[in-house]
Amino acid sequence: MSGEDRGTEVHPVDAADDASVTLAAIVPLERAASSVSLEGVSKFYGDTPALVDLTLDARAGEFLVLLGPSGCGKTTVLRLVAGLEDPTSGVLRIGDRVVNDVDPKDRDVAMVFQSYALYPHLSVARNVEFPLRSRQVPGAERKKLVDEVARSLHLTELLDRKPAQLSGGQRQRVALARAIVRRPRAFLMDEPLSNLDAQLRVEMRAELVELHARLGITIMYVTHDQVEAMTMGDRVAVLNQGALQQLDTPVTVSDRPANSFVAGFVGSPPMNILRGRLTSAGDALAVSVAGGHLVLDEQAAAALRRRGLEEVVVGLRPDDLVVAPGGTLEAVVSLVEHVGQFQHVACRLPGGQLLWVRVPASSAGLRTSDGVRLSAEGSLHLFDPLTGARIDA
Amino acid sequence: MREAGAGYLFVLPALVAFGVFVFYPLVKTAYLGFFTSPPAPNLPAHYVGVSQYSSVLRSSEFRDDLWRSVQFVLYTVPAGIVLGIALAVLANQRLAGIRIFRTVYSSTVATSTAVASVVFLTLLNPQIGLLNYWLGRQGGAGLLQSSSLALPAVSVVTIWQNIGFTFILMSAALQAVPDDLLEAARVDGASSWFRFRHVTIPLLSPMIFFAVIVGTIAGFQAFGQIDILTQGGPNNHTLVLIYDLYQQAFQYDNFGSAAVLSVSLFVILLVLTFAQFWYFQRRVFYAN
To answer: What fold, for B61-282?
Structure first.
């Protein structure tokens, strides 16, 4: 039980907010946020692995984002926690309780589906009250809880409508209300914002973060959108091919990617990944790639020498590349994207690889087919060419 | 104008076919009801105006016919739908070899009424019928010879015969229920019965509604099984409206009262169907 208590202490309910106070008052303390953990969990469909020996946890009251490309197994994690699928091996825990053999209805988690999965034949009020009705909460109490959660999510006016009569954002809020109304131990959210238009997505992102802070709930949130991951999560778990790549705070994942996959996946545009041979450039060590070379600093060179590597994988943030006459890389501009204060310039190296460079919008106009020289200004990220693991200088 | 002309031209073939085979017979039948049939063929029919309508419709025979038809529908339609849904739910599991069961369950749709009736006639035969034997009635009167059990027995045969069709309808509807709704309900804490009652059934409701309408009409018009199994007997206990109509017309040559019965059947089905639409409209959920 210590995990649960910790959750409620870490995220006290905001006393200034009426709706959440009453909500919290109704739900007994021991049913508040729990931790959710997977220990060595694998899931196979026939011979096809979906998850391989996965160990991760969402702490009580934490907003944990599962990030990865489609097919990486992140939705499978949620389905396993919810009990919609059974793990092939490993242990699932909600709070201190092992739930491997517990029926979904008794796990006391709520799930928000990508499709929202609202019951189309029921009004908003009946949708929200569904989890209470299925648990035989008495009518009067049901109405009270539904009214409260409807008020806190601005759904009061919509309670009599059917889902088909709602906009995407409203449906999203109904799905959230249905999840919140019984204050489960944890919330599982499967790309809940992916069906919304861009502007609404930004709004809902903020609302979800605020809701999390207000209610002190545990959220496991699946997304393939790394902007969502970086802006919403307390911690981010990056998954690829069913395996955990990195589990850390957004800042760390972004600044110190654990391997070349994470480096190439996180960021917008993501880090450029180049493979090159180590050569000497005067006194210093350099990485030679098609189109030029990149000079390494002392520490990096020392780390590489210690490992006796001949090749290395280099990660370069688009912000860390600049267009400069004296640059050490030769490339040709193949695309210029104007995004607000910046231009994202895709430059093609002679070997055919694209490098993304972020330059201020005010800088001189680069046009397609222009020849440019690039130099690396910031820090280089180095990865082992065989394992992809980060090499720390 | 030219477009309208072309439109009428397209409608014409259907109009002709309906006119010859539906509208004309309908009007002609209503018209026949104004004449009493002669005591022997080839003698002229008598015009009696609406008096034949009122005498037939007020007769106790008509009331009994109608009540038996209603009983037959009440026996066959709800039970058929409940069984169809139950089998569809069973066959909707993801199990090895489930296709075999799906084929078996839907197979009665490929059986003709005549074949099904003959099979059951044999099974229910008082001397050699296997079902009769199992029911402990060998040697005595068969089910079909029992005044209280003949109509239920014919109903059971009808349910069996219709089950394939209902099963196919309900299976199709069941497969259209989105998985994520049922999964959401599981996570929301619903037991399997609660999910079935509050998610599956409402989403099946349009198909249930369709099956009720079609089943009711088919029930009022069920003829083949009665003709083969009981011919309205014993002692008129399976004499439903449609079978009386048939006997009046083709056994007693009493076309006048047969015409009255068929007009009444038409009106009854029309009113009933409208009533069902009216009743179900607010209770059925349509996805779109």
So the answer is: MetI-like fold (1.10.3720)
